[in-house]
Design brief:
283 residues; alpha+beta; six-stranded antiparallel sheet; 6 helices; 12 strands
Length: 283
Amino acid sequence: MSGELVAVPPTQPAPAATTVVEARPPMKKRNRALIVVLIIVAILAVLTVIAFLIGENFAKDYAKNYIRTQVIHVLGLPADAKVDVDLHDGSIILQAISGHVNDVDVSVPELAFGPLTGSATLHAENVPLDANAPVGVLRVEFAASETDLAKIAGNLSGLQLDSIKLNEPNIVIASSFTIFGIPVPLGVSILPSAADGQLVFTPDVVTVADQQFAVKDVLANPLFGGFAGDLLKQTSICVAGNLPKALALSSVDVEGPHLVLRFTADGAALGGTELSTMGICGN
């Protein structure tokens, strides 16, 4: 009805705005997560190193066997010959990526060049993995002792020798001959050298009854020249015929207790014909 009073409900106050606060994980939980991550990274790093080392050792063994096989082939050694290969420091895997091995040293305790026996060391640089590619440096050093030289006594003199000594820079042989029933001691100093693939022995000084004479003077003497001619003549041993033609005999020297022969084959390919074909002596 008009004129009646109508009650109005009280106005509700507007709800207050609420602020959402994100809860942060406790500090201990964050540290624990970081430690777990670091442990995982460390484990992965260790596993990577182990895998690399396993691969490195495998690659090094493979390279050693490859080089050993090539050395046995080049030097004509028996398959079971003792051949020690040293690849020095540095990663073989990284060297293989570059296509070659940086430095190689090989030792062969027993080796024969025809009648001459001794030991040998081989040094090579920039050895390609491709057997048909040239090696940067390839050198062989052969050493024979006084005992080894006894096996070639017949190449040093026509006389029966009492001893062979190495007295740098000469090989000194001792023998004797008889005049009117009297034994006379004889010594000859021999200078070794290399020429046209041959190991050459040139008599230099002769000692008779403690008196020394130049061989050239003895040979020029009309009285003794004819008698001593065969005894003091130059002799040689063909070395090149027992080795691949790429290995050139570059020098021969007496060094301490050894007669040392040096060969060079720089630029030769390990799988090439120059290291699979035997050489010859002379021009």
